[in-house]
Amino acid sequence: MEEFPSGAVPEPHDDGAPGGTPGTAEPRAAESGAAEPDGAPHDEVDRIVAAWLRVRPDLDLEPLTVFSRISRLARHLDLARRRAFARRDLEIWEFDVLSALRRAGEPYRLSPGALVQQTLVTSGTMTNRIDRLADRGFVERHRSPDDRRGVQVELTTAGLKQVDAAMADLLAVEADVLSALDKDDRPGLAALLRTLATQFEE
């Protein structure tokens, strides 16, 4: 599970289009997602793109039609995930660490270095996070059986129950978001997003 940046999340109407938020000053013909006179569904991005076309018809705005929607969806998902984890009294970073341990399988144990690699934070940040999770009774430190100087971090029974419950809540939230798409369309969307993401992972 990827970690989301901490702090306030921008409201979904703050679009990352070039030049700020040119579309927000435009009068809205209908609410986001409502049908326009031609019968096709339109959203705020369509209105932003239309505004740019009026002032810069020389630009190819196709990237904006894709990435502005991805950006806006990411903000909505971040807020939804925070609400889902809040039901279990968890922060997103806590779920990131606990879920990495859960995915490791029994005995749900990883080195701090492995946790750093999986959650993309510094070793100092991870040390602090392990301390805080240990204080909550969700993880324990153990000596590594292969290296007496090494340490392993292990899920406790309480941590296991907490992360399993939070994962179920998260999947329910995300399934609700996906319900706007037909099931037959979802694999194709996942494949397209995988293609875009792979260029950064490589």
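(the above was protein one; protein two follows)
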Amino acid sequence: MAANGSTGTDRRRLKASLFLLACGAAGIAPHGLEGWRSLVPALSLTLLLGLHSLRTLVLAALRRRAETDGAPATTNPDVEVAVPLVDVVVAARDEEAVIGRLVERIAQLRYPAGQLLLWIVDDGSSDRTPELLDGLRLQHPFLRLVRRSREAGGGKSGALNTVLSQLEGRWMLVLDADAQLQSDVLERLIPFAEQGGWSAVQLRKAVVNAEVNLLTQAQAMEMALDAVIQQGRLDGGGIAELRGNGQLLLRAEIQACGGFNEATVTDDLDLSFRLLLAGRSIGVLWDPPVQEEAVLSFGALWRQRQRWAEGGLQRFFDYWPGLLSERVSLPRKLDLSSFFLLQYGLPVVAVADLATSVLTRTWPVIWPLSLVALGLSGVAMLQGCRRPSEGPALPEANPITLALGIGYLIHWFVVIPWVSVRMALLPKRLIWAKTLHLGSLPESDLSTQAS
């Protein structure tokens, strides 16, 4: 898909400006009410959104209990599933630290010979990645190497589109270069996808370097929270979303959607909405996970989260007419509305509320919703960290680590407003701001033993 021109940029600024104005008004207006009435809007939203979020967490807890009791299983062992050809696809740029490990991990996957191909798109790497890939291709016949120039454009989406028409399999598994997989992942993932009738399945993302520092520990808890919420939303009639690394896609469905959108900085979030509007469903698999590195510094986190926030907001701006249409069921509309208000609306409203409080010397009025949102997020972290899981051990859930995790989530109250202002004022820039992968950290135990 081609990138938007100047007209698209103008529409983006207008939509972002309207979003800021609406959220600003929601944060300022209650201050015009007297006494306890100023809390009525926040308390009303807290009741509605809090009950919806609590329902999501209850459904997630029931899923965990069902899995612990042994029913229902993720797959039916009595149903035979044909072994389809699978294309593993990786867009790689300057990945000399991890690319060799990735190829060896794919070589260790238990899957019938001849039914697995690895496609690596070398997206104009300027380090030793090209030389390493040339050597690896001689060692591994299943490796297919595609090269494109650094100036080709389209970011990760452009790299994936370059190879999409060459793929041969029914399924494509998109990985980041730092991904680590258990050897039995395809043996369990493919039957889950086929028997569930999913058009895509997202593996739970697990942080392989959670023990490095407090920031990586908090990211590990955040990934567990995300998977819990995703499964709860899905079980409640809502939707699950793709997360880029560890996403299994039905190739025909991706081609029917027009491939990957090169006018977005988050191909996974954009594709999630296009599949939704096409009437397709995305599943989530808790185990086995896909393992990846968490960023090590606040600077790297800031850059990464800006990209995630921009892509997340952009998809709502781009697809809102379809999301409000009959193509999306009422339960899914409610789910999306609640998610949008809590993830994107609340941080901007909270900043407007705080600024108004400072200027008018009055008390903030949005705090009930913020407290409930953060509190329920802590409950989701608790559920996720105490859930049996394969791969790297999740952080221990105790009052100290939960306080750390909840405090860490406050960074979204800075990232979302900042990105919203930037989108309203500055031109759109399509830059593949990839996360640096170090690959030198100790590798986790890739066995299938639950922690």
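Reviewer note on protein two: Residues 330-360 form the longest helix (31 residues).
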